[in-house]
Amino acid sequence: MLREVRAERGMSQTEVARALGVPQSFVSKYESGVRRLDLVELHALASAFGTDLTALVARFEEMIRHAG
To answer: Residue 14 and which of 4, 5, 35, 64 are 20 to 30 A apart at CA?
Structure first.
């Protein structure tokens, strides 16, 4: 889902990483499921995407509802 949001915003992994102040591999790892984000990291990511944490969580909840 986070990969989809990034793509919808027209951002590369490198651009997101730069906005977060982390290596590009950090973004790659959470997008591929190798790494999980804590709440503080997710909040920063939402800001980098130009949205808020509530919107990301709502989207995640909607995705979960449709998946199962």
So the answer is: 64
**Secondary element (H or E) of residue 20:** helix 13-20
- 54: its two tokens: 């509530």
Assess if CATH 1.10.260.40 describes domain 2-67.
yes
The Cα-based distances of 5 to 20, 52, 62 in angstroms read: 15, 12, 14
Q: What is the pLDDT of residue 51?
A: 96
- Token pair belonging to 18: 């730069």
pLDDT of 68 strictly over 80: no
Domain ranges of the chain: 2-67
Residue with tokens 């998946």: 67
As a whole number, mean pLDDT of residues 42-65 equals 96
